[in-house]
């Protein structure tokens, strides 16, 4: 499940092979295939960047490609002629440069636009502070979470709202709330600033610890905890004992626009209201 750390590792893995190189060939296919993708042929790739859950490729001359991987998308890098690990029919975007082929598989969002339009882009322009940005603004993150329009939102829903904080997905949401002993179902208005600050800080700490891991490696939030026999504390552990108190972990769908499965301990974090 791609989250902010996955995208940052992906960008770091692609940069050595794409950055500063001219595009030799490009093609797109699938539902909503990028029109005019041939416009990037002959252009130099100037930036490969992750913003939240978006991967951005910027080209000289002012063009930009954005991909959002959602649940199943991924970027791969191959040598010319190397066999792909997924069927070619699942490739949404293929970019060839000297010595490398970058393939974006199964991404539901692939779009080409002018870089100057980024500040007006309906998704990018409204992203909250990226937790993995070296200049991450925790004060702005708190301000966004404290927006009066979010006061009644359940914290488990608010943390994955990319307009408040960019990069947190369902795995980190569950892990952070368990670590901080906060119920996913309490409202933001019921939490003090100190608690919200802790949630933000813990999410950033966990994600930073994972961006240095190889892109194909397993995400780990229990690093350094000798008593935790597994990579995660609570996510995906429905029905199994809480790693703190032994109470069976409960799972339930949460949210309305894009419901996600939430895992929590009814003893450590409290029962669902």
Explain the overall architecture.
This protein has helices at 4-18, 138-145, 155-158, 170-179, 193-211; strands at residues 23-28, 45-51, 54-59, 63-68, 74-78, 91-97, 100-105, 109-114, 250-254, 260-264. The strands form 3 sheets. The chain has a 4-stranded antiparallel beta sheet with strand order 1-6-7-5, with helices on one face. Strands 2-3-4-8 form a 4-stranded antiparallel beta sheet, covered by helices on one side. A two-stranded antiparallel ribbon has the order 9-10. The model has no long low-confidence stretch (mean pLDDT 93). The longest helix is centred in the C-terminal third of the chain and has 19 residues, at 193-211. A hairpin with a 3-residue loop joins strand 3 and strand 4. The protein is globular. The chain is built from 5 helices and 10 strands; from the N terminus they run H-E-E-E-E-E-E-E-E-H-H-H-H-E-E. It has 273 residues and is of the alpha+beta class. Helix content is 21%, strand content 22%. It folds into 2 domains: 4-126, N-terminal domain of MutM-like DNA repair proteins (Alpha-Beta Barrel), CATH 3.20.190; 138-264, Helicase, Ruva Protein, domain 3, CATH 1.10.8.
């Amino acid at each position: 499940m791609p989250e902010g750390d996955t995208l940052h590792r992906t960008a770091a893995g692609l940069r050595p092979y794409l950055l500063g190189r001219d595009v030799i060939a490009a093609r797109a296919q699938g539902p909503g295939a990028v029109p005019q993708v041939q416009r990037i042929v002959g252009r130099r790739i100037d930036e490969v960047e992750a913003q939240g859950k978006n991967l951005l490729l910027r080209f000289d001359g002012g063009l930009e490609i954005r991909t959002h991987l959602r649940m199943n998308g991924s970027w791969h890098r191959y040598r010319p002629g190397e066999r792909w690990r997924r069927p070619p029919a699942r490739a949404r975007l293929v970019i060839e440069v000297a010595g490398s082929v970058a393939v974006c598989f199964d991404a539901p969002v692939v779009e080409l636009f002018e870089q100057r339009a980024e500040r007006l882009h309906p998704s990018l322009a409204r992203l909250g502070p990226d937790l993995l940005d070296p200049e991450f603004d925790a004060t702005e993150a708190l301000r966004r979470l404290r927006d009066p329009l979010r006061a009644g939102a359940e914290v488990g829903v608010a943390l994955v709202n990319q307009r408040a904080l960019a990069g947190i997905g369902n795995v980190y949401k569950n892990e952070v709330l368990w670590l901080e002993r906060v119920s996913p179902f309490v409202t933001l208005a019921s939490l003090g600033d100190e608690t919200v600050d802790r949630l933000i800080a813990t999410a950033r700490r966990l994600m930073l610890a994972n961006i240095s891991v190889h892109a194909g490696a397993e995400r780990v939030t229990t690093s350094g905890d000798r008593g935790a026999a597994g990579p995660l504390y609570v996510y995906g552990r429905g029905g199994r004992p809480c790693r703190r108190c032994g109470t069976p972990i409960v799972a339930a769908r949460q949210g309305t626009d894009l419901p996600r499965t939430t895992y929590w301990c009814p003893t450590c974090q409290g029962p669902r209201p």
